[in-house]
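Protocol step 4 of 5: obtain the predicted structure for the target chain.
Materials: sequence only (see below). No template structures provided, no constraints applied. The aim of this step is simply to have a reference model before the mutagenesis design in step 5. Sequence pasted as it appears in the construct record:
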Amino acid sequence: MLDILFINPGDRKVVFQDLGKDLTAVEPPFQIASYASFLRNKGFSVAILDANAENISPQETAQSVKELNPLLVAIIVYGNQPSASTQNMSISGKIATTIKEKTNAKVVIGGLHPSALPKRTLEEESVDFVIEGEEQIPLSQLIEVLKTHNDLSKVSGLWYTDNSITKNTPKPKLIDDLDKYLPLAAWDLLPMDKYRAHNWHCFDNINSRMPYGAIYTSLGCPYKCTFCCINAPFGGSGIRYRSPELVVQEIEFLHKEYGIKNIKFIDEMFILDERHYMKIVDLLIEKDLDLNIWAYARVDTVHEETLVKLKQAGFNWLALGIESANADVRDGASKKMRVKDIQSIVNKIQDAGIYVIANYIFGLPDDTMESMQETLDMAQELNCEFSNFYCAMAYPGSQLYNIAMEEGWQLPEEWTGYSQHSYNIQPLPSKTLLAKDIVAFRDSAFHTYNESKKYLNMLHATFGPEVKKHMQNITLTRLKRKILEE
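Step 4 output (structure tokens):
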């Protein structure tokens, strides 16, 4: 019997509407593949079913589970960014329910959202167990307990029901050796021909989005932005690192074994500690692999003197969380920056030949219609190579979620309502604006920015006519929004 089958859930049609057909990335589930490698190294038999990449239904997923006959099914709910955990809970629940109806397998669910709301997840979903905290140690303990019919109380970070009584055990301690517990991923267990990069990631070569790789070099983030839920499994802010040597070994393996050039560094904050990321950069320069990498940074962590080497190592894109043009709005979200600093850093990054993905949020608690317009005006002034426009969400595990629960603010009725692109999106209201007004502004801002002559002319000059046409085709799609129809 197979010891454990990992399932990566996903529902691109619901989460992204028509944008999910060919515009969004299909990202390999690095954490699942690394967990699989860790458990395989301990002698367990392991398989992975990437239901998201395979684009299969819960019924098809359950049929595969039935055929593989695992002792334990582990549905691990993460995604392309932190919010993707919550927005993937609806499909995760359907998968769990169908598996329980069609098979006798025990089902455990873990990931960012289940870790943020373990009791609720156990009560609402058709699962036997929920993991709170990091998954590697609890999973290995749970397999052993199921094999020996031992006491579930010996499994750390586990929520379960015993004679109709909800029980839970203490969370496991944070893992202190990422190289051991987050080893080279079991890429051989994944459908590597199914993954594709974001469209913008490949603006330099829009027809070469496959193959695609994504890895962590660190876990966690030392900052405390109120809208972010990234640290929910870890119990607080902080950051831990894989060794640069292991990271580069993995990148070299992906490049040589699968021909992968397009790589995402999933870290919430890659450009942070120069001792870590510049060691990776130096090693990549030595390898001379011809890569197309993107990674996250903050305006206040980018240092001009490192940019030339970053470009040389293959970093062609840096994603900046700018959020808002208004200082009061940003400070309310615990993100202190000055507009002139933002402009200066963006220019320096671009001067080094690196493109910028700018991320903006509309509807933070102190936002007004005027401050949101201020943000859009700044976005158009910066005219970055790509921009994401988001609505403020109270993601489970974030401070905003706790505030929303205390204040009784309306939250999404379905987990897919946390998706920025879904039909049933339900963001937070601000202190002065209704949620529907924020959605309407966000959707209008997307088209205002991407359809502007200034932006399209920049795309044409930087990437050529094909990318300009590509963007014009994207803007033909208008998202349907329930909140705007009511």
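Step 4 remarks: Residues 16-20 have pLDDT under 50 and may be disordered. The longest helix spans residues 435-450.
Proceed to step 5.
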